[in-house]
Amino acid sequence: MLGQRTILAWLLVVALFGASPAISQVPDLKTGGSVPTLAPVVRQVTPAVVNISVHGRVREDNPLYRDPFFREFFDIPKQVEKEINSTGSGVIVDARRGYVLTNNHVVEGASVVRITTKDGRQLTAKVIGRDAPTDVAVLQIQDPAGLQALPFGDSDALEVGDFVLAIGNPFGLGQTVTSGLVSALGRTGLSKEGFEDFIQTDAAINPGNSGGALVNLRGELVGINSAIISPGGGNVGIGFAIPANMARIVMEQIVDKGHVERGRIGVSLRELQPSTKQGRNEGAVIAEVAADSPAARAGLRKDDIVVMADDRRIRSASQLRNKIGLARVGQDVKLTIVRGGQTSSAVVKVAPPVQASSTSTRLLH
């Protein structure tokens, strides 16, 4: 249910800009006028959001179980597993082939995956592939007849203040819709993997919403709900979604190759500092260029500021690291750089990853 402040916000939007395609008007029986409603866009998108039930077994990661004396004394097998039963959410993004996007952590360790659609159908799915660094997984429904998919939106076009809807299965209650704003963009630091560019939203996201849809007012998928910050375990207005553009790239690689192929161009990056801004508030600073790397051959230099990649604005080093790290090997990436106050461009070909070493661990991979 929309809160009072959210309703007032919708009223202000309608008053200032008129009703968008997603905001319809319904009669107000008390005043004889009309009030805004999001029911049409909700009806349009909710059939593509599904509940996911997972059954499986995962290995217990207890250091004591790796101690041979402890195992022998207590007669514990070398690998101890526990049964898991969990629920989450997913988004149908390809109705013909039955592909569903969700979070990696929703289906990790799954041996049986069951999908429940909005109309109550119980369907079986298999895990096509998972990518832990981005927390994205792709499922395929075995009988895709009669499914409805949610179209992708351009998550790079989102701005702070845009209205969004979060749809999922919180606490296993069943499909639930909440609304809010895009609170921030480019959030990082939630995990140790580094492939993060989270959309922050105050639309209520709770346990069980993981893998569900973050939708714009045009009824397009702009994010996959993934995480919350909550001292008490419930929603406090700080939720995070994986940008749809990132999830789509991961999905395409998983469907094509079964895994994500992470390339490199041979640079290390750092965030803008007062001494390196060159009049810029956004961008990624090249901290180091490896000899004979794709970046070196393209003419990139230390202290160059990358402000665009493939004509998309680069806000931070993390965003550029994600862009290169998720690009396919052999792909050309056009970078717009600022050097000494002058803007120029360079085309860099993404190379295969190299074995980790004291040098290469600092480079994009």
UniProtKB/TrEMBL annotation:
Keywords from the UniProt entry: Hydrolase, Protease, Serine protease
GO BP terms, alphabetized: proteolysis
Record-linked Pfam families: PDZ_2, Trypsin_2
Enzyme Commission code(s) on record: 3.4.21.107
Enzyme class of the recorded protein, top EC level: hydrolase
Keyword field contains Flavoprotein: no
InterPro entries: PDZ, PDZ_sf, Peptidase_S1_PA, Peptidase_S1C
UniProt GO molecular function: peptidase activity
Domain PDZ: from-to ranges: 254-341
The keyword Repeat is annotated on this UniProt entry: no
SMART domains noted in UniProt: PDZ (SM00228)
Top-level division of the source organism's lineage: Bacteria
Similarity comment: family membership: Belongs to the peptidase S1C family.
PANTHER family: SERINE PROTEASE FAMILY S1C HTRA-RELATED (PTHR22939), SERINE PROTEASE HTRA2, MITOCHONDRIAL (PTHR22939:SF129)
Name listed for the protein in its UniProt record: Serine protease Do
Origin species: Bradyrhizobium elkanii
